[in-house]
Amino acid sequence: MNDYPRTGLRLRSEPDVDPEVRIACINFCKWLRTQMEFPIRVVIYLKKDYQIKNRTTKEEVTATFFAPYEKDVEPYIRIATGDYKDLIRERGKMDALYAMLGSISHELCHYQQWLEDKELEEEEEEAEEKGSQLVDEYAENIDSILDF
Fold first, then answer.
1. Which residues fall within 8 angstroms of residue 60, CB to CB, at 6 or more apart?
2. In this model, does residue 146 exceed pLDDT 60?
3. Residue 126: left (phi > 0), alpha (psi -120 to 50), or beta?
């Protein structure tokens, strides 16, 4: 995997994404870069929509990972953030942000599975578990997810 011209983790945000979500995700990605390797560049796109359409199944979902067939094509992640205010009302700000970071970490687990040539559909439980563990570890290593 050392032959690829671009490596790393990048984050892009649509202009209307809530600033609290954007800043929390920026800080999370900074931390992730110290914890994980990204031998093939993966870009995370924060979308303002409540849901996004999975390009394969056409389902409306809150997060997707695009896993190219070839490793010379860069994968990407899309995260829907439009329900952030609703989540605050339902769960509180901390849990709402945790949900956003949980979506990122879940999809990054799929990224790792893709790097290892695992069948992503068969590894959903692993992505759920490892994704939650990753956000929990982040929360233990910072003063507060609410630092923005």
1. 51, 52, 53, 54
2. no
3. alpha
d(CA 88, CA 94): 8
Cβ atoms of 99 and 91 closer than 8 Å = yes
Written as six digits, the tokens of 115 are 């790097």
Distance of CA 5 to the CA centre of its chain: 22
Question: Looking at per-residue confidence, does 16 or 147 come out higher?
Answer: 16
Angstrom distance (rounded) from CA 11 to CA 54: 19
21 vs 6: CA distance, rounded Å: 26
> What is the C-alpha radius of gyration for the chain, rounded to an integer number of angstroms?
15
Backbone angles phi, psi at 125, to 5 degrees: -60, -40
Residue 138 to residue 100: CA distance in whole angstroms: 13
* pLDDT per residue as tens digits for the range 101-143: 999 999 999 999 999 988 867 778 889 999 999 999 998 887 6
Distance (Å, whole) CA 44 – CA 23: 14
115 φ/ψ angles, rounded to the nearest 5 degrees: -60, -35
Residue type, 125: E
